[in-house]
Each structure stands twice: as C-alpha cells, then as structure tokens.
Backbone:
C-alpha cells in the first residue's frame, strides 16, 4: 500500500500565507474567544427581540471564530509550515 502522508518539512506554505499568518498571529487568542462569546450574546439579543433570522445568522459566527482561534494558536506553536524548531523540547 502506498503511503501518501506528508512528513514534517516536506511541504511549505507560500509567502502570501506566511505574510497573513505573521500579522494574524499577533492577535491574542482571547480575542477570538471574545468574538465567539460576543456573537452568541448578540444572537440571544436578537432572539429575544423576535428577529429569528438575524439571530441565527449572527449565532453561526461563533464556530468560525473558535476555529480561527485554534488555527491562530497552531500557527503560534508550530509556525507557518511546521518546519520551525519544536518549542516543547526547550521547556525546562
């Protein structure tokens, strides 16, 4: 059976991705959590004011904000293409 897995350092991200991640990695992870919680709170507000469609629309923003937060944390830990040195090995 052929093994198609990509090993560490085998593939690299392009410069556009690296440039975007350089700026977005400066955003604290708590911002993404706050945006997710804020969208849920705003959604509840619209639900109470009987604006169901808007409530559902805003409420669906929570999951993408949380996913972006996870991606942001992974970039901070592993770098853009995962070829940076392992930080866990240097913890005393």
Residues:
């Amino acid at each position: 059976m052929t093994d198609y897995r990509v090993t560490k350092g085998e593939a690299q991200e392009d410069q556009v991705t690296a440039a975007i991640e350089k700026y977005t990695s400066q955003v604290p992870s708590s911002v993404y959590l706050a945006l997710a919680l804020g969208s849920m709170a705003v959604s509840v507000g619209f639900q109470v004011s009987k604006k169901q469609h808007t409530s559902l629309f805003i409420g669906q923003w929570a999951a993408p904000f949380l996913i972006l937060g996870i991606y942001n944390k992974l970039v901070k830990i592993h770098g853009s293409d995962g070829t940076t040195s392992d930080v866990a090995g240097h913890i005393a």
User: Anything to note?
Assistant: The two ends are 41 Å apart (CA to CA). Residues 27-82 form one domain. Residues 29-48 form the longest helix (20 residues).
